[in-house]
From TrEMBL:
Keywords: Hydrolase, Magnesium, Metal-binding, Nuclease, Toxin-antitoxin system. GO terms for molecular function: hydrolase activity; metal ion binding; RNA nuclease activity. Gene3D superfamilies: 5'-nuclease (3.40.50.1010). CDD domains: PIN_MtVapC3-like. Signal peptide: none annotated. This is PIN domain-containing protein. It comes from Candidatus Raymondbacteria bacterium RIFOXYD12_FULL_49_13. It comes from the Bacteria.
Length: 129
């Protein structure tokens, strides 16, 4: 299964960076795609118009739901954040550490357009698609 981060969904819905859009298209066509609760919330809260919200919500509700937030992942994410900080790396958003940790702990690939995930990858074993 593959998780698509908010940053990649934004590119996809705005027909943005072609390589990111293509990765999302390919994942939706050929892979099992999961939607994390955090990603679901981030994407939907950024939508301005009700008809777009309804369309995107329908798409997301057709995907496998992945509850990312809970005490076990929160604890592991805090440890991962500390590991990264000890190496001089500061991740800008706590949510990104949680999403990255969730993917690592569950052996899932991640499609994204956010440099923080690239920084995490070699230290945490995050599989970038």
């Amino acid at each position: 299964m593959i998780i698509i981060d908010t940053s990649a969904w934004i590119e996809y819905f705005n027909n943005g960076i072609p390589r990111v859009v293509q990765k999302v298209d390919e994942a939706l066509e050929g892979e099992i795609v999961g939607i994390g609760d955090l990603v679901y919330c981030e994407v939907l809260q950024g939508i301005r118009y009700r008809h777009e919200w309804d369309q995107i919500s329908t798409l997301f509700n057709s995907l496998t739901r992945c509850p990312m937030v809970g005490f076990p992942i929160a604890e592991k994410a805090s440890r991962n954040y500390t590991i990264l900080r000890s190496k001089g790396i500061t991740i800008r958003k706590t949510i990104d550490v949680i999403i990255g940790t969730y993917c690592v702990e569950n052996g899932l690939g991640l499609i994204h357009n956010d440099r923080d995930f690239d920084i995490m990858s070699p230290y945490l074993g995050l599989k970038i698609i």
